Amino acid sequence: MKYLVGRDFAFPEYLPRHPRSYDFDVVKMSLDVEVDLENGAVEGVVKYVVRAKKSGAVVVLDAVDIEVLGVSHDYFYDGAKLEIRPEWKSGEQVEVVVRYRARPRVGMFFVRRGKEVYMWTQGETEYNRYWVPLPDSPNVKFPWSVSITVPKPYVAGSNGVLVEVKERGDKLVYVWEMRHPMSPYLLALAVGNFKVYKEKCGDVELEYYLPSYVGEEWKFSFYNTCSIMQFLSQYLGVPYPYERYAQVVVPEFIYGGMENTTFTILTDWTIHDKHAQCPYSGFPCLELEDFSSHPLVAHEMAHMWFGDLVTAKDWAHITINESFATFLEALWTERSKGRDEYLYEIYTNFKIYLGEYSRRYSRPIVTNIYKIPDEVFDRHAYEKGSVVLHMLRSLLGDEVFRRGLKTFLERYRYKAVDVEDLRKVFEEVSERDLEWFWNQFFYSAGHPVLKVSWNYSMEDKAARVQIRQTQGEDSFPVYTLPLELKIVYEDGRREVKSLVLNDKELSFTLHGKPKYICVDPGFKILKSLDPQYPLESAVAMLEDEDLYCRLQAVEALKKNGSPKAVDALAKALRDNFWGVASEAAKALGEVGTAEAVAKLIEAYPVVAHPRARRAIIEALGNTRRREAAEFLDRVLHDVGESYYVRAEAARALGKTRWEFAEHSLRKALEYSSHLEVIKRGALEGLAELGSEEALRLVLKYAEEGVPTVLRMTAVQALAKFGPRREVLEVIRRALRDENFRVRYAAVAAALELLEPRLLPDLEERIERDLDGRIRRMAREVVEKIRKAMERGAEYQRLREEVEKLREEYRKLLDRVARLERV
Ligand SMILES: [Zn+2]
Q1: PANTHER family annotated for this entry (predicted)?
Q2: If you placed Cys at 44, which of 33, 287, 304, 531 could pair as Cys (CB 3.0 to 4.6 Å)?
Q3: Residue 805's pLDDT is what?
Q4: What is the pLDDT confidence band of residue 544, given thresholds at 50, 70 and 90?
Q5: Residue 759 Cα, ligand 1 centroid: separation in angstroms?
Q6: Is the pLDDT higher at 821 or at 606?
Q7: What CATH number should be reported for the domain holding residue 517?
Q8: Rounded to whole angstroms, how far apart are CA atoms 176 and 159?
């Protein structure tokens, strides 16, 4: 029954959590705040019109570390909850008023940029309670108005529509109104020296809030906003539900973006120049795009429907918000770039989930066994969830699927829902029972693992095909899966066989000799595939027209690793679709022979897509050959090359450990690029080199005052130098830094070091950190260090042995390759 809980996600003391219920309804909230930018403080009056569900109901508000200055009724405050007791009867309506002051440690952030201060809030999951008393549960929805007083000439934005801006001496008062009922975590404010640009998208007012330090390049990030809005409105069958959509760019944001209704806040990291997006061509460059903000724009916009209009009633059901936003992001890719790009995004999402599954834990997408709400915002909720929705779409067909989405959104608009509500709508529109699907993919951990093999018998002129379900204990024991197989015969015949897999094992006979068999050619089913195909067959399948068949062929060839497989993979570097080329490059990197390296370098100039080139460069980092290092060095200093490719070259060059790399990487610390990716690549490359001079440089970048992107990279990279005194000292300090990203980098460094001496510092994070993501990661690292200590010497010995075996295997493959060639 392990599949009902998963593995390593819930710690022993974890208890089930349930949505909160309230004895009162909130009719409306009115908030009046004055923001003190210089002192990082806020003072306010919040009024709630509330209605009693029963006589004597207590109005319970969440309010952490707030100074209560006065309340309209009898109250009790314990530092976390404010209980207000009006004398009232069931059905009666009263207004309760709280005057308060706060200097928030989280939830409301103040960032200085030169002479300016930027303030932004982040409510999700449960952080608004640090700066305003409110019933902080997603299943409560109410309309609100917010008036914000700021010094001139600051701009203050919030959700909804602007009612007015008043002057009050040397201050400005902005009055915003959110007329639709919304969950409290979606309430947001931002204050700063913003330039505000506006345009119309149909009836909707689009706004862009840009910090004064951002120039005209902001347009590269946002030029598609209206197209994305029109696409989502049309696909979902529900027009964009609000009057306005603002995208607000702020410094030091602690996420990529946050979907506050009509007022999305985004990191300034999303701003980039033309070269970051289109390194080799004019703008736009859909076919050859490198970095792009559009996935982020699409993701946050998708939340305006899934998350804001219809909201998960508790964090356990966060799939309603995050799986949909991630899936709709992929649908925008399909609309703007085509089917293969969409499928490859889903394929990549599955691989990202697999990374979390194999390195961290497994859990059912829907689980109420968690402690920190932020914990469930993981690769299961986002990426795996998006693949599950893609599978549902494939199973029901696009038309029925869309009808389900429209019905769901219309039926539950402005309400809080759970995954059962979703199931019932899909059952209704499809006229099918879907419990089997929900049980396997929403309520169970893991995923199917299919081992597929076939043999041809000359004697019988028939092939025996065998499919086995080999998933582990933390996955559903026997999945029921509709599955298609594409069979291409030697004599040119082709057929697609549809079957239902509902046993551990299934086998059948084909008459004639297959050239190859491709499992699930349309990539409709979420699964891990273990293809055991004959070499010739995998080589032939590389030519198939279906993307997923070619990706499958690459996986089979990677496992094979023979010179013939290397030749075939080298050919796949020139595939029409860059995703196949990338996978082939990664595969060649893993094979790692001299032959494979030569093929990678040879193909580089003819590979057009920057992301495929990045994969080639990354693959070259797996080898210590001089010719690879020299090649990487040239790419690193080529100013016409993509920033991201050059950053990868810096990292890879460090990994080759050639002595000239140090000089080269030091020079790369002077190149500027989007998000300083080249400098960061150079820091990581230096850490790979591991020299004393490299350590000196990386330590310098880990110091206070260095821009966050560089500092966090340096802190994390320090782990590569091992648990030396000066390294541990910096990591220890970074674990207490006030910048979230620096602390997170320090936890990541601790994960790599698994150093017992860091245990007290990590334990302090578990107890004290204000950010739930850090508390969770620190806990995982502590568990891993303890386990590593238990295994002790045994662990170290095994690690060294594996490393030695890997090196020997590579040498052996090299020798085989040379023999073949001569
Ligand atoms: Zn999201």
Answers
A1: PROTEASE M1 ZINC METALLOPROTEASE (PTHR11533), PUROMYCIN-SENSITIVE AMINOPEPTIDASE-RELATED (PTHR11533:SF174)
A2: 33
A3: 72
A4: very high
A5: 32
A6: 606
A7: 2.60.40.1840
A8: 7
Considering the domain architecture, whether residues 328 and 410 belong to the same structural domain is answered as yes
> What is the 303 CA–ligand 1 centroid distance (Å)?
7
Q: Are strands 244-250 and 263-267 parallel, antiparallel or unpaired?
A: parallel
Position 809 scores a pLDDT of: 67
Q: Which two tokens stand for residue 665?
A: 């990487």
> How many angstroms separate the alpha carbon of residue 308 from the centre of ligand 1?
11
Task: Indicate the pLDDT class of residue 813, thresholds 50, 70 and 90.
Answer: low
- Dmax (CA) for the chain in angstroms is 96
pLDDT at 812 over 90: no
Confidence (pLDDT) at 810: 66
Question: What is the whole-number distance in angstroms between the Cα of residue 778 and the centre of ligand 1?
Answer: 23
| Ligand 1 mean position, distance from CA 589 (Å) | 33
Neighbour order of strands in the sheet with 449-457: 505-511, 462-469, 449-457, 528-532
- Asked if residue 453 and residue 351 are part of one domain, the reply reads no
Cβ proximity of 195 and 212 under 8 Å: yes
Do 398 and 465 have their domain in common?
no
154 lies in a domain? yes
Stretch 752-756: mean pLDDT: 96
d(CA 323, ligand 1 centre) in Å: 8
Do 66 and 145 lie in one domain? The reply is yes
Where a domain ends, among 530, 546, 562?
A: 546
What is the helix (H) or strand (E) element at residue 748, kind and residue range?
Answer: helix 740-753
Q: What proportion of the chain, given as a percentage, has pLDDT over 70?
A: 98
Say if residues 475 and 35 touch (Cβ distance below 8 Å).
no
| Distance from residue 306's CA to the centre of ligand 1 (Å) | 9
Q: How far is the CA of 703 from the centre of ligand 1 (A)?
A: 32
**Distance from residue 257's CA to the centre of ligand 1 (Å):** 8
**Structure tokens, 334:** 């399909």
Which DSSP helix (H) or strand (E) runs through 275?
helix 274-277
Q: Please tell me the distance between residue 275's alpha carbon and the centre of ligand 1 in angstroms.
A: 27
Instruction: Give the Å distance between the CA of 415 and the centre of ligand 1.
Output: 18
Distance 294 CA to ligand 1 centre (A): 14
Question: Ligand 1 centre from 417 Cα, in Å?
Answer: 17
Share in percent of the chain as helix, strand, coil (round to 5) = 45, 25, 30
State the residue range of the domain holding 40.
26-192
CATH value at residue 174: 2.60.40.1730
State whether 406 and 470 are in the same domain: no
Domain stops at, among 512, 529, 546: 546
Distance from residue 324's CA to the centre of ligand 1 (Å): 8
Q: What is the pLDDT of residue 822?
A: 42
Distance 261 CA to ligand 1 centre (A): 12
Distance 244 CA to ligand 1 centre (A): 19
- What spacing in Å lies between the alpha carbon of 145 and ligand 1's midpoint? 25
CA gap 715, 709 in Å, rounded? 10
Tens-digit pLDDT profile for residues 213-233: 999 999 999 999 999 999 999
Asked if residue 682 belongs to a domain, the reply is no
User: Cα of 389 to ligand 1 centre, how many Å?
Assistant: 15
